[in-house]
Amino acid sequence: WQRSLVSHGGSVFFVNSVTGNNQSTGDQPGAAFGTLAYAITQCTAAKGDVVYLLPGHAETVTTAIVPKAGVAVIGLGMGRNRPAFTGSGAIDVFNVTAANCHLENLRVIGASASVTACINIAAADLMVKNCVFEQAETPLFGITVASGGHRFHFKDCKWLSTADGPDGAFDFETSASDDWIVEDCFFNYTNAGMDLAVFRADADATKGGIIKNCIAIGLDAAALFVDFNSSHAVGEGLLVNCNWQCLAAATTANTIDLGGYGTSHETGAGDGPVRAMAIPATTAS
User: Fold this and answer.
1) Going by C-beta distance under 8 Å and a sequence separation of 6 or more, which residues neighbour residue 3?
2) Quick check: 258 and 226 in contact, CB under 8 A?
3) Distance separating the N- and C-terminal Cα atoms of the chain
4) What whole-number distance in Å separates Cα of residue 181 and Cα of residue 214?
5) What is the C-alpha radius of gyration for the chain, rounded to an integer number of angstroms?
6) pLDDT tens, residue by residue, 31-61
7) What one-character DSSP code corresponds to residue 38?
8) Of 234, 278, 238, 279, which Cα lies nearest the Cα of 262?
9) CA-to-CA distance for 75 and 2, rounded, in angstroms?
10) Distance in angstroms (rounded) separating the CA atoms of residues 216 and 225
11) CA 184 to CA 24: how far, in whole Å?
12) Checking DSSP bridges between strand 261-264 and strand 282-283, what pairing results, if any?
């Protein structure tokens, strides 16, 4: 392994729950730290530091992991061998309160009770790539978006339900998180259904969002793909090339509440006689 000053800029640390410990130097795989939280304490904010989590790394998280500004946390490994973080208690597994963070190639796992989010976004410009979020009975929403969560970007991520309980994938908790992108993501709630909406902003407006090339399956009959009924300005966001299907009979019109969002090249389906329907390009108000 060699560190490239150009590609990393700052310090590089390694974490391995199998062989590492927090008394190590953390600067090479053979001297890895034992926990991500400790590795973050060794990072310097906004200097381009990177934390690599080695294959097979696993943590049970009882206190939320809080990344530092500008720090990248990158998991190594494929499939179920990628680093895994399991929530335990009434916590957000990751609570992003600093800007410009990066999370990549992680598994974030819910629990039978209490977990409040896989990731809570409370700062701007978060990038999340190639992560898997496994919701059990909790968290009800995999991702919660608090005030100030502007310009987040999720790409190539998956949501998988493992038990009955999830209400949805994204919940916008305030009207102060705009200009975000979710693309090339897959939402699979077929295990026991999803109750409310994949994307939910039913009490707060969110402007400038783009949902692109996303697929959702396993919605309950009364659940929606998007619930943006509090949004109101025409042209404030767009769904592009998205597809979804419900577990039971549902009309396509009943699975979207667009608010001010528009659509382009969408298909939605219930499990009734009409199993697929194209939605004309539209902008709601």
Assistant:
1) 12
2) yes
3) 54
4) 11
5) 19
6) 999 999 999 999 999 999 999 999 999 999 9
7) H
8) 238
9) 17
10) 8
11) 38
12) antiparallel
